[in-house]
Every structure is written in structure tokens, then in C-alpha cells.
Specification:
The complex is a heterodimer of chains A (268) and B (285). Chain A has 268 residues and is mainly alpha-helical. Chain A is 79% helix and 0% strand. The two termini of chain A are 22 Å apart. Chain B has one domain: MetI-like (MetI-like fold, Orthogonal Bundle), CATH 1.10.3720.10. In chain B, a hairpin with a 5-residue loop joins strand 1 and strand 2. In chain B, helix 3 (62-94) crosses helix 10 (207-222), helix 8 (181-189) packs across helix 9 and helix 12 packs antiparallel against helix 13 (253-284). Chain B is globular and about 70 Å long. Classes of the chains: A mainly alpha (268), B mainly alpha (285).
């Protein structure tokens, strides 16, 4: 059993890290084509990310879309999560389902829906089309994080504020909202990262005019590999791994991922 | 908890923005998509409003049904592969000390945050002839010459399992940490081997979680576009690839819309089953 446990764990780690290794090696390979064994060492491809105007444009598009759509997603999710968990609303389960439905369905559904929608309005190929499409698709993430916080929040706090004479609005602004901010940030971060990586919605909504990084990578691959693609991938992976490591150092990663608090104490 | 208040006119005003956005940018587009599925495709151009059932009839032709069954089959298989590896892995993970557990969780999260584009591309390289794993085997003397393992069915299955694996682990993780270690300890005190304990105690208790994780992988892989496109031949393509191709390259948007509605219905059924299982497990714990 012990042997089996270690074999399985080692196998999973190798399996999960294998693609990371490929792109890491590919990104510093001197040769323009990925060959084996790799030859030489070069940081030229990383340099291209900062000098090539095509990559620059794509990086700018991707960052703009991720930042704006994640903000819009939080703006959609926060009032929905707050009202649904605070008031007695008959349609609450239905409205919550509406909030998580876009994300539960395969992304191609949202992608095609948005494509025919913008085609019918005649407003085609704009960056705001992608921002809205991503905001709707990823609003589920802040909706879930904020709703979970609303559920576990100590209700005595807003009640105390109201007993002390604060009206609904003041209570929300001074008590509830500050308590919700961590979950809003988590939801924002999740939506931001997934938006950066998203391909099919960006492609169908405005792939020919607004070339985001994933769209540019796929278009590039169709015409052949360039090591710059691997360099982009490494930058992405480093950002993600650093974020999670910081989270593990300064926060409680296990608890954040839903581990049972009682077990957490026993395990150590 | 105190009784929740009834909403006022002002609360409805607060709801107007999020609900309005979801209705305008999700429900209405979905409605337009449903309408489009009845439209008429103009060869070489685009499409025009009409009411015809051609696109829907195409859905019931053997060619399409075979494609649909293939998609369902390969995604179910990916679910099976994922859960077979992810379940014991996650179980062991939750029994580890904090430090190795956190490190492994970071590995899982890093894999999760990889773009599907990057995953498809790296497995394309790894399974290719020019610089893939077979070169390492040749170098070690195990094989005579490098071989290409993609495009193939196995490559698509591997890619789909890869993108779903981290999600599968993270779905199982919270539930498995709640599995009381005293239960397994009791089984072992009574003389069961760890191996026997795992099969006769852990797996049966966790059965609903296993089913939920399996179905989630199924829905998730159904939505994948790039994996099958990069790692498979056309006969290995899944519904998402066909929809995307019809919507872009072939420009038969009405047929793409009909297929998309079919895929929605399929996913909704699976999601409903998962919801049912989850509400039942919640009652158990």
C-alpha cells in the first residue's frame, strides 16, 4: 500500500508537470524549431515578447479584457449574491441558477450565443463584445465565492449595526461590504486568470479583429511553432504558480480549497 | 438566524443590473441561437431568417448521431480515467502532512491554471515524433526509432484527462478531508489491511462523491475544443469542435446552433444528475 501510494503520487506529479517541462525547455532553446535533444540556451524568445509589436498588441488586448471583464463580473455577482442571501425572494433559486448557468454549460454555448447576438446587432468584432462575453461567462466565479461568504457570515454583525440605528444602506456600506471584500478579490482573481486563458469565446466573438494571447498562440501554431509561444506559456505558468505559492504562505490554501477545519488540526 | 426580510422596491432596483445583464447577454443570445437553428443557410454566404427544420433533421442522421455518441463515449472514458487516478490520489493527499500536501496542491493548481491552448500544444509536442517522449526512449535504448503518438484516439483521451484532472481533484478534495480517519482506523484495528480498508470502507462511503466527480469531468471535457482539434484526426473530434468549425470555417451557423442546443440539453441533464447526487450526499454528512 505504501509503495503503491508513492508510485501513484509520483506518477501524478510527473503527469501534471510534463507539459510545464516541455514549454520551459522549448522557451530557452536556441534553435528556432523544437528539436531533441535541445541545443544551446537563449533568452531571445523572451525578449521578443517585449519588442515584437504583434505580441505586444495581444498582451495588451488580453490584459485589458481580463481586467475589465473580471471587474464587470464582480459588479454583476456582488448585488446578486447579496440580495439573494439577505432577502426572502421567491425566485431566488431560479436567479441563482441563472447566475451559474453560463459557466456550467460548455463554453461553446456562450461563444456561439454571443456570436449570433452581436451579429444580429451589427456591432461586430469589438473588444467590448469580448469583455461582456467573458464577464457573463465568468461571473459565476465571484457569485460562488461571495455567496459562500454571505452564508458563513455572522449575521449578528449587520443586525447589531441596525440595532444601533444604521439603515440598510449604511449597514451594507460599513459592515457587510468590508466583510465581503476578500471573497470579491478571490472571485476577481479567478475570473481574471481564466479570462486570460480563454480561447473559444474570444475566438468566435471577435477572433479576427481582437487577437488575444490564446487566439494568437493558436493562430501561430497553425502556421508552425515559434519558441515565443513557449516563452508566453512560461510567463503565464510562473504568474499562476507564484500567486498560489504566495497564497499558501500568507493564507491557508487547504482551508481555501474547502478542507475540513477539524481534520486540518488533527493532521499536524 | 433571524427571519429574512421581504424585498423592497429598492432591492428590486439593486437586482435590476445583474439580472438585466444576465438576461440581455445570456438568455437573449440563447434565444437568438434557438431561432438561428431554424434559419436558412445560404451556400457561400451566411444565413437568412426562415423557418425550416433542415438543421434539426441533420441532427438525426446516422453520421451526426455517431459523432454525438463518440463524443459522449470519449468524455465518459475521460471521466473514468480521471476518477480512477484522482480518487486514490486525492485520498492519499488528504492524509499527508501539511507541507507536502500544500506543495502538491500548488502543483495541481498550476496545472489547473494552464490554458487549454498550452496543454494542447505541449502534449502535441510530447507525443510528436520530432521532440517527444519517444526520443527519450530511443536515447535510453528502449526503442529503435522515434514514433508519433498523435494524432490518435489515445492522445485525445490523454489530453482531455489532463485538463479535467485538476478539477476532479479539487471537487473530491473538500469531501475527502471530511472523511473521519477514525472510521479507517477502526477498520484497521479490527484487522483489515490498508488495501482492504480502502476498498471496503473508503470507496463505498465516498461512492456519491465519486459519481459526482465523474460526471463533472464528463461535462467539462464535453466543452473542450482545442484538445480534440490538436491531438486528434477528424474522426476523433468532439461536438464542441464540430460546433466551432461550423460556426467559423464552414460558416453554417444555423447547423452549429442546432448542435449547440443539443449539447446544452445533454449537459443540463448531466448537471441535474450531479445536483441530485450532491443534495443527497449533503444529507448524509
Amino acid at each position: 500500500m505504501r509503495l503503491w501510494r508513492w508510485t501513484l503520487t509520483a506518477f501524478v506529479v510527473v503527469f501534471l508537470l510534463a507539459p510545464l517541462l516541455v514549454v520551459a525547455v522549448g522557451s530557452v532553446n536556441q534553435n528556432r524549431y523544437l528539436n531533441f535533444p535541445p541545443e544551446g540556451f537563449s533568452l531571445e524568445w523572451y525578449g521578443q515578447l517585449f519588442t515584437d509589436s504583434g505580441w505586444q498588441t495581444s498582451i495588451r488586448y488580453s490584459l485589458t479584457i481580463a481586467a475589465a471583464s473580471a471587474a464587470l463580473a464582480v459588479l454583476i455577482a456582488t448585488p446578486l449574491a447579496y440580495v439573494l442571501r439577505t432577502y426572502r425572494i421567491r425566485l431566488a433559486p431560479l436567479l441563482y441558477t441563472l447566475g451559474i448557468l453560463p459557466f456550467m454549460l460548455p463554453p461553446i454555448i456562450s461563444a456561439l450565443g454571443m456570436q449570433v447576438f452581436w451579429l444580429s446587432t451589427g456591432h461586430v468584432g469589438r473588444i467590448e463584445n469580448v469583455i461582456i462575453a467573458h464577464a457573463i461567462f465568468f461571473s459565476t466565479l465571484p457569485l460562488v465565492t461571495i455567496s459562500l461568504t454571505m452564508e458563513t457570515m455572522d449575521q449578528a454583525l449587520p443586525e447589531a449595526a441596525q440595532t444601533l440605528g444604521a439603515d440598510r444602506r449604511t449597514t451594507f456600506r460599513t459592515v457587510t461590504l468590508p466583510l465581503l471584500i476578500p471573497s470579491m478579490i478571490t472571485g476577481y482573481a479567478a475570473a481574471f486568470v481564466l479570462s486570460l486563458n480563454e480561447y473559444i469565446i474570444s475566438f468566435l466573438v471577435a477572433g479576427f479583429t481582437v487577437e488575444t494571447l490564446p487566439v494568437k498562440i493558436v493562430n501561430g501554431l497553425r502556421y508552425g511553432f515559434t519558441p515565443t509561444i513557449a516563452a508566453v506559456a512560461v510567463v503565464f505558468i510562473l504568474i499562476a504558480a507564484t500567486t498560489f505559492t504566495l497564497f499558501a504562505i500568507f493564507g491557508n490554501l487547504m482551508k481555501f480549497l474547502g478542507a475540513d477545519p477539524a481534520i486540518l488540526e488533527k493532521n499536524n | 438566524m433571524s427571519e429574512r426580510e421581504k424585498p423592497s422596491a429598492r432591492t428590486n432596483g439593486v437586482l435590476a443590473f445583474p439580472v438585466g445583464m444576465l438576461v440581455i447577454f445570456f438568455l437573449i443570445p440563447f434565444g437568438i441561437m434557438v431561432a438561428t437553428s431554424f434559419y436558412h443557410r445560404i451556400e457561400g454566404a451566411f444565413y437568412e431568417p426562415a423557418f425550416e427544420l433542415d438543421n434539426w433533421q441533420r441532427l438525426f442522421q446516422p453520421v451526426f448521431l455517431e459523432r454525438a455518441l463518440f463524443s459522449i463515449g470519449i468524455c465518459l472514458l475521460a471521466g473514468l480515467v480521471c476518477i480512477t487516478i484522482a480518487f486514490p490520489f486525492t485520498y492519499f493527499l488528504t492524509r499527508m502532512r501539511r507541507r507536502p500536501q500544500v506543495v502538491l496542491l500548488i502543483v495541481v493548481l498550476s496545472a489547473l491554471s494552464l490554458s487549454e491552448v498550452i496543454v494542447a500544444f505541449s502534449w502535441y509536442i510530447l507525443l510528436g515524433r520530432a521532440s517527444g517522449v519517444s526520443n527519450i526512449l530511443v536515447w535510453l535504448g528502449v526503442m529503435n526509432e522515434a514514433a508519433a503518438y498523435q494524432p490518435s484516439f489515445a492522445a485525445v483521451l490523454l489530453g482531455l484527462s489532463y485538463i479535467a484532472f485538476p478539477y476532479c481533484v479539487l471537487t473530491l478534495y473538500p469531501q475527502l478531508t471530511r472523511l473521519d480517519p477514525e472510521i479507517t482506523e477502526a477498520a484497521q484495528t479490527l484487522g483489515a489491511s490498508p488495501w482492504r480498508t480502502f476498498w471496503t470502507v473508503v470507496v463505498p462511503i465516498a461512492r456519491p462523491i465519486i459519481v459526482a466527480g465523474f460526471l463533472l469531468v464528463f461535462v467539462f471535457t464535453l466543452g473542450s475544443y482545442l484538445i480534440a482539434d490538436f491531438l486528434g484526426r477528424p474522426e476523433h473530434w468532439t461536438l464542441s469542435v464540430f460546433i466551432a468549425n461550423q460556426a467559423s470555417a464552414n460558416a453554417n451557423v444555423p447547423f452549429a446552433a442546432a448542435m449547440a442546443i443539443f449539447l446544452t440539453a445533454l449537459s443540463l441533464v448531466v448537471v441535474a444528475v450531479v445536483g441530485l447526487i450532491e443534495s443527497r450526499t449533503r444529507r448524509l454528512t
